Amino acid sequence: MAANLGKRKRQATGEATEKPRKSKRESSEELDSALEDAQAIFRRHFEAQFKPLPEVKKAAKPIEAAPEEEESQEDESEWDGLSEVEETEVQVVEHTDAQSRMAAMSKEELKAFMSSKVPRSAPEVSLLRDKAGSAIPDDDDSEAANLKKDLALQRLLAESHLLESSSNTTVSGKNRHKATDMRIQALGSKTSILKQEKMPMLHRKGIIAKQTDRETTRRKEAKENGIILEKAKNDKKRDGKRDRGVGAPGVGKFSGGTLKLSKKDIFDIEGPKKSSAGRGGRGGKRGGRGRGKSF
Amino acid sequence: MSAPAPEFLHFTTHKSLTQRLVLSTLTGRPIHISQIRSSSPTNPGLAPHEVSFLRLLESVTNGSSLQISYTGTKLTYMPGLITGSAAGLGTSGDVIKHNLPATCTRSVSYFLIPLCMLAPFSKAPLNVRFEGEGVITSATQSGDISVDAVRTAILPLYEHFGILSAKLELRVLQRSCVGAGGKGGGGVVELRFGSQVRLPKTLHLNRSPGRVRRIRGVAYCTGVSASNNARMIHTARGVLNPLVSDIHVAAQYDQAPLVSSHDKSDPKARKRTGIGFGLCLIAETASAGVIYSADVAAPPEGGVTPEDLGLQCAYQLLEVISQGGCVTRVGASTVLTLMAMGSEDVGRVRLGRDIVGSEDLVVLGRDLKKFGASSWGLRDVDEDDSGDIIVAVKGSGVGNVGRKIA
């Protein structure tokens, strides 16, 4: 400790005070040894009277040989280098990266563990994941395994086009929903689960307009480029009578408590004028209702 | 009650008070406890948490009577029937609300663990909600474990006794660490113990505990920076990762709870209390049902870094694992009590040598004997050189009195 303190002092005052400092240090060391001798004498005296004292380990002086070395170097150069005390002190820098990969439980596991229930010691393997085709070993030739492989193959063939889209090439997320939708429709569902049931009329109109627009441009471009596309699915044309409900009048438009007859309806009921009856009487009658449809 | 004058069992001091009260309630023997902190000139008699536990016992039982002497140094308790939270007996909804005073210094696990021992023998499902200004959900300096440790390390032990763990629930509605001066918190915890049995099954847990396979845990922060969680987890993993690869610790951050500030001028004023952080680690072994746990929380006066705490918790877990056995020190009293209350058959449990030699287990063994249970048989494990001890406990066949009548 004494050596350390001396060093600090030297650094502060520079070389000018080198000589007196050294002598001071020598004298302090002499004093130390004298003190130790005195202590040893006291100790011996004490131990002779009472019982032996426990051995006191003297703190080892950090650098015993350093001063001599330094002295020889100091003569040669002005700069006395870095202080040795600082060299021997290893600077410990602890860098903790709190943002580094945290202990990430899977979502289900975290939910199960942090719920108010007693956590299960063995986590249940989710069925969805267990059904992955890869889980079945290839050399399993049993009937059940073959069936599973068949199913997996069928699904792969039917759904592989989903994986071709450039944006999403995984079987999770959007593609998984699309695959589920396809399977449900294959099982006989009339509507798609992806179709939104309730939405503002204007939105729906816009979507439908966009769809038809896209379809027509596609067809137009294909036609211009000479590509033959699949047949257009034409809308079902209304054929036959409009369903007018039970007990409703078979003619005209009933609104606001009044049956409104258009001129055409009246003409249809009245039939052609008598004056021209000789010429087109039968023809007019034959047309009757039917003619109305061709408008 | 027109029963003949009951024969009191006499005990002294406040040590393992809850354990004795639980045994008294289970066996139906009245007890008399004297010299409760009688030598303390400043705080003689029962502490606030002990009084609170007595009140809790009164609310979950029917017909129990309690006498506390003027100074609180003497206590007479005559147990009643454990009714649980049956309708019409001080329950609101289907839960008993129990208010802990702000002077409470113990974690809520001090109440939960003995209450869980009573719950399987209750007549109706036992649902208790702890609230008020004394509910501390974290671990404490006095050695209480946190609610997370109760839920993940103590409650799974009941599965061994045929008590369905699916019907046990411990909801932590509000977390709270220890408040200023080591007193109070503001947490809300609800225990729902829906599985009652006539007699607990005989336990045979004398197999080798096996190697630790996975480590789970919860790091919690209330009212302090949530990054403390990450720091605790990081250092704990630094110690444990070379030993086990499967380590996952969940991080839980909550706001500090609001409690009344007890300001006379403004009775509506509220303040935040119970800030702090802590870590609870659970190690599960390859052998089913063996769980080791460690629990450390920051002291209320602060001054520790999360890194130190994480390190301390990891080392504590390693120490608990090194003690061996199939049940840890914190779970041993629960397991041995339930075994003693079981059917008249000999059950066995393998415990670490240090755990069997610990003071609270020795006291528990003596108390059980005093309450009329048979003595334990101890035998060294000779299959391996772990130095563990197999404790054989013969059940007293007391079981659930309420179920027997019904």
Automatic annotation (TrEMBL), chain A:
Residues 1-11, 282-295 have a biased composition (Basic residues). InterPro entries: FSAF1-like, Ribosomal_biogenesis_FAF1-like. Residues 16-28, 211-245, 262-273 have a biased composition (Basic and acidic residues). It holds the Pfam family FSAF1. GO terms for cellular component: nucleolus. Residues 1-36, 53-86, 187-295 are annotated as: Disordered. This is Protein FAF1. Residues 66-86 have a biased composition (Acidic residues).
From TrEMBL, chain B:
Residues 208-321 form the RNA 3'-terminal phosphate cyclase insert domain. InterPro entries: RNA3'-term_phos_cycl_insert (IPR013791), RNA3'_phos_cyclase_dom (IPR023797), RNA3'_phos_cyclase_dom_sf (IPR037136), RNA3'_term_phos_cyc (IPR000228), RNA3'_term_phos_cyc_type_2 (IPR016443), RNA3'P_cycl/enolpyr_Trfase_a/b (IPR013792), RPTC_insert (IPR036553). CDD domains: RNA_Cyclase_Class_I (cd00875). Residues 12-344 form the RNA 3'-terminal phosphate cyclase domain. Keywords: Nucleus, Ribosome biogenesis. GO terms for cellular component: nucleolus. Belongs to the RNA 3'-terminal cyclase family. Type 2 subfamily. This is RNA-3'-phosphate cyclase family protein. The lineage of its organism: Eukaryota, Fungi, Dikarya, Ascomycota, Pezizomycotina.
